[in-house]
Amino acid sequence: MPVYVDVDRCIGCRSCEVACQRVHGGIGHIHVHFVGDFASVPIFCHHCEEASCTIACFSGALYKDGERTAFDVKKCTGCGLCSLACPYGVVWTDKIAHKCDLCEGRAEPACVATCPANALTTDYELASRRERARAARAAAKGGRR
Amino acid sequence: MIKVDDSLCIGCKSCSNVCPSQNIVRTETEKMRSIHWKRCKEECDLCVEFCPARALTLVPFDETVQEPDLSFDLVACKICGSRYASEPMLRRIEAALAADSERDSEGLEWIRVCPTCRRSREAEMASRETVLERCRRGQ
After folding, report:
1. All residues at 6 or more sequence positions from A5 whose CB lies less than 8 Å from its CB, including other chains
2. Quick check: helix, strand or coil at residue B137?
3. Chain A 16-35, CB below 8 Å of chain B: which residues?
4. What is the pLDDT along chain B (139 residues), one digit of tens a residue?
5. Whole-angstrom Cα distance, residue A42 to residue B122?
6. How many CA atoms lie within 13 A of B71 on its CB side?
7. Contacts of B104 in chain A (CB under 8 A)
8. The domain at A1-44+106-145 falls in which architecture?
9. Which residue of B has its CA nearest to A131?
10. What CATH class is the domain A45-99?
């Protein structure tokens, strides 16, 4: 997943949703979900290695481009198969499909650049360091990991 | 004119989306999706070309033939009950994906769950550790 989420850091401000909509003509590809009063989680495309949306897409509009699950709007017919094939529910279709394109052409995805809580990152090393630190803290306290 | 093989049509939105002359009319209600193919004289085969199920063919114009009409009951989401997809579309996805990927880590048949509930479940799973920790701290 080329954008990593640190759920502990997310403050549920939904700035990422706004940023995504701003750069995608009003249609956003990231949704912040609230789990009771306890946590908020931005949900968006994982860019799966074996992406079921690309398997379901019959016209070749969705395809793997390296790590990215890319989308060619010219080939899309809006049939709706991809949105039903996505296990995370993060491909939308109206007349055409909409999904995270990792802000192709920008230095950094708009959601990552905007997040005021630094909950989103494209840096695998950072995400991995945070995860290890969390595991270490949990182990030190004797809690379950 | 368009001929529809109703044993092949999966009730998707492709042909009604690509038709440039609005000759294919899709009607969606809460429980049903209906597709109506009007008698058409265009020399255009976009719908045929872009049918994922290869259910459409072009045949010579004939006024006596009835206009094809198909209706699909929409399947209810296993979690929230909202109707979200036609049965043949879900079957097609189940056939396309590997059998071992059709259940999630908790054994749920996720293809039978609507996209909105899939997102909510993903949020719950991704935040499980955080929620546990915050509950513990709050005690």
Report:
1. A41, A42, A119, A120, B126
2. helix
3. 31, 33-35
4. 899 999 999 999 999 999 999 999 999 999 999 999 999 888 899 999 999 999 999 999 988 989 999 999 999 999 999 999 999 999 999 999 998 888 888 889 999 999 999 999 999 999 988 888 888 887 6
5. 10
6. 7
7. 87
8. 2-Layer Sandwich (3.30)
9. B129
10. alpha beta
The single-letter DSSP state of residue A32 is: E
Q: How far is CA B64 from CA A96, A117, B125, in A?
A: 35, 66, 57
CB contact under 8 A, A86 and B115: yes
Size of interface A-B (CB pairs under 8 A): 111
The pTM of the full predicted model, rounded to 2 decimals, is 0.91
B18 to chain A, minimum CA–CA distance in Å?
Answer: 6
Q: What's the ipTM?
A: 0.92
CB contact under 8 A, A8 and B123: no
